[in-house]
Amino acid sequence: YRLVLGADGHIYGCTKSGQMFRINTDTVELENLDFRVPHYPDNYVNNTWYRYLVQGRVDPSGKYLYMAIVATEEMFKYEFATGKVSSMGRCIPGKGIYPPISGKSCWDIHGFDIDKYGVLWIVVSEWSIHNETPYRGNPPCYLIRWDIDHGEEPYCCGVVGTERKIEEYVSEVEYDPVYDILYCVNTATLLI
Fold it and tell me: Quick one: pLDDT at residue 131?
């Protein structure tokens, strides 16, 4: 789904089944990172459909590649010096923003970026497959702030949108360090 250029000049990705890999740009070979995204109890989407890389960003120190995987609350980091992947923890605050609308729902990371202070800004929404509830609309996206470098827990800042439109799907998140602005884009709307 996504490939990410690492601080070491190599390209990183994850298969649909959750196997992380690296394209070694020195040898032009595909390398197994010896890490597979785990199965999550009661996460129908992740365990049966998708487990690929949504987005990756090099942290400000250049030591790590932070990674978001589709249909999971957990984020991962790859350490360039050791070649190891480990969990960063859950990016959803507490027990969740609200209870899932169905048994086949999960929180899904749409994208994220890191600001000039090292804070992660993550856009999430609930993803429901085979929704058999009376609710049929798309749940809104939420903006999560996570200052992981200073030991803070993830914090929900609220719904992504404007006074006129609540965002239901974000396809890209980018941060502008010059103007200190986080941009969220979907397929048809730009939100500032």
Answer: 57
Contact residues for 1 (Cβ-Cβ < 8 A; gap 6+):
13, 14, 16, 52, 53, 54, 70
Integer CA distances (angstroms), 149 to 11, 67, 87, 111, in order: 24, 15, 14, 19
Give the model confidence (pLDDT) of 19-34 as tens digits.
999 999 999 999 999 9
Nearest-angstrom CA–CA distance, 127 and 45: 8
Q: How far apart are CA 80 and CA 164, in angstroms?
A: 43
d(CA 114, CA 84): 21
SS3 state at 178: coil
Residues 61-103 have pLDDT tens digits of 999 999 998 888 899 999 999 999 999 999 999 877 887 777 6
Dig out the tokens for 110 from the structure.
Answer: 């749409």
| 162: three-class secondary structure by DSSP | coil
